[in-house]
Amino acid sequence: MRVALIVRTLISANSRTEAARRDLLVVLILVSAVMLLIWNGGSLLQIATEGRSASFGTSMKVAATALILNVALILFGWRRYVDLQHEAELRADGERRAAIMASTDSLTGLANRKGFADGLQQLNAEISTAGRHVAILSVQLQRFKAVNDRHGYDVGDELLRRLASHIRQELPADAVIARLSGDEFAVAVACDCDNRERVEQAGEALLRILGRSYDIDGTLAQVGAFLGIAVQPAASDSRPADLLRRADIALERARSARSARPVWFDASMEQALIARSELEHALRLGLEHDQFVPFFEPQVDLRSGEIIGFEVLARWQHPTRGMIRPDVFIPVAEDIGLIGLLSEKVIGAALAAARDWDAKLTISVNISPTQLSDPCLTQKIVRLLEEAGFPAERLIVEITESSLFADLELARSIAAALKGHGISLALDDFGTGFSSLSQLRSLPLDMIKLDRSFVTTLMAERQSAAIVRAVTTLGSAIGVPVMVEGIEDAPTHAAVLALGARRGQGWYFGKATSADRTAELLTRNLAGPLEAPTSPPRLRAAS
Questions:
Q1: pLDDT digit string, tens, across residues 278-293
Q2: How far, in Å, CA of 504 to CA of 485, rounded?
Q3: What is residue 128's predicted lDDT score, i.e. its pLDDT?
Q4: 530, 521 Cβ separation under 8 angstroms
Q5: 268-272 long-range Cβ contacts below 8 angstroms, 24+ apart
Q6: Taking the alpha carbons of 264, 270, 275, 280 in that order, is the dihedral positive or negative?
Q7: Where are the alpha helices (DSSP H) in 336-461?
Q8: How far from the centroid of its chain's Cα atoms is residue 414's Cα?
Q9: Is the pLDDT of residue 21 over 90?
Q10: Partners of 33 in the beta sheet?
Q11: DSSP letter string over 395-424?
C-alpha cells in the first residue's frame, strides 16, 4: 500500500507539472485576447451606440476580437480535456505498476505472498468447472543461512535469482510460483482428479533444481530443500489459505523426518498438529499450576538388596488426563524451550521431599542436553540445594553420554563447577554414544550408568553380556562405580551379579512412585535388604 501511494503521488505531481507547462501557451493566448478586447472596447461601444451606422472597419475589429477570444477558449478547454485524459491514463498506469510491485518479489521477480494468493484464487476459478484439483507445493531451502553466513548476502541473493529462473523454466507455464519469505517458496499447479503424477513430478523437479550446485562468480553454492504437498478437490469449499496451511504441515513433516522426497499431506498430520498445539498449551498451564511432580525410582546394592538411593523422574499429574509419562511431554518441553523451567521445578520439589530421608540415600537428577548450554546451570542447581536445605554431597547430577561429549570443554567446566560445590556427576546412558577411554579419564566422574538396552537383551544376546562384563570391569579398574539400569526380573538380577555388577535399578526392585509413597515405604522399613539370588542363570559365553 505504501508503494502504491508513493507511485500515485509522484505521477500526480509530474502530471500536474506537465499540464501547467502545456497550459502556459493557452493562457498567454487567452490573456492576449482579453487585452485585445479591452483595447477595442471603444469600438464595441461605438457599435452599440451607432448601430448600423458604425464603420465596416470597426465591425471587423470587433468580429476579429470575438473570434480570437472564442478560439482561445476552445483551445483552453481542449487542452484541459486532453490533460485530464492524459493524467487519468498516467494514474491508471501507475496504479497498475504499483499493483504489480505490491504482488511481486523484488529480488527474484516471482510472486510474493499477496501475488501468490491472487494467482491461486485465479487458478482455482479457472479449473472450478473442469473437475480438476489445485495442488500446492510448499518448499523450504536447507542450509541457505549457511550460504549467506559463509559467502555473503550478494552470493545468497544471486543464488535465489538463479533458483527462481530455473524453477520458471522447469515448471508448467500455468503454474503459480512465489517466494513467500527468505528461504520459503510455494507453487500452485492444476492436476487431474484421478492422476497426481504431474504434481509428484513437479515436486521432484523442484527438489532436483534446489539441490544443484551453482557457480556464482567463482563461488560454488549449493542448498537442498524439503517439500510438502497438499491437494484440494475442485468440489471442496476450502479456502486457498487453508490449502497452503496444509502444505506447510506436510512440509514440517518432511523437515522433521529429513525426507529427500515430497511428502503428501493427510488428515492425520493436521490432527497430530492440533494435538501438539493443545499439549503445548496444557504444558504451559501445568507449569503455572505446579502439575509436574517428582517420582522416585529406587537404586539398590545388588548383593544385599539394600536401597542406596533414588533416581528422580518427572511425572505430569494432569487434571483430566491423569498421569502423563515423561516421554510424552519432555520432547515438547525441549522444543518450546521450557525444559529448563520444568527441570528446576521437579528437582526443587524432589530435594525438598527427600531432605529428611536417611542421610545415606542419594538423589540422582537428570539434566537435559539443552540445559548444558546454560552458563548458569551450576548456579541454578546450587540455588535449588540452598532453597531446599538439601546436602550437596547427597546429590548426583546425571548427564547423558552424547550430550556430555558433544562439547568436551564445556563438559569439563560443568563437571569442575559441580565438583567444586560437592555435587557428584554421573554419566548416563553409557554405551549409546561415542566416548573414548581418554575422555572418560579426563572427567571427574563419580558414577557410570550402563544403558538399559544392554540389560534388556542380556539373556538373549551374548554381545550384551560381554558389554556388561566389560563395562563393570572398566569401572572397577578406573575406580568409578557402575549402575546397571533395566533390571526387571530375578534372572536378570542374578545375571548382572554374575557379570560383576554391584549396583542397579529397575522394576524388579520397585517402580517409580510419588514422594509421599516413597516416604511411606521408607518409614515402614520397606527399604531393607531384598533376597539375593542364590543360583545365577547360565549365560552364553561371549565369543
A1: 999 999 999 999 999 9
A2: 6
A3: 67
A4: no
A5: 270/246
A6: positive
A7: 339-354, 377-388, 401-404, 408-420, 437-442, 452-456
A8: 29
A9: no
A10: none
A11: EEEEEEHHHHTTSHHHHHHHHHHHHHTT-E
- Cα atoms found within 13 Å of the Cα of residue 242, Cβ hemisphere only: 8
CATH hierarchy code of domain 276-523: 3.20.20.450
Burial class (CB in 10 A: 0-12, 13-18, 19+), 386: exposed
Q: Which residue has the cell 498438529?
A: 273
| 447-450/482-484 β-pairing | parallel
The span from the CA of 270 to the CA of 282, in Å, is 18
Ramachandran assignment for 481, one of left (phi > 0), alpha (psi -120 to 50 degrees), beta (any other): beta
Query: What pLDDT score was predicted for residue 39?
Result: 58
Residue 470 CB neighbours (<10 A): 14
CATH fold for domain 113-265? Alpha-Beta Plaits (3.30.70)
Selection from 382, 326, 388 nearest residue 354 by Cα: 388
The CA-atom distances, in angstroms, between 149 and each of 155, 159, 451 are 10, 13, 39
Stated as kind and residue range, the H or E segment containing 430 is strand 424-430
Please report the pLDDT score of residue 194 as a whole number. Answer: 61
- Per-domain boundaries in the chain: 2-102, 113-265, 276-523
pLDDT tens-place string over residues 403-456: 766 677 777 788 889 989 999 999 888 877 655 566 677 778 899 999 888 898
pLDDT tens, position by position, 339-392:
999 999 999 999 999 999 999 999 999 988 888 878 888 999 999 999 999 999
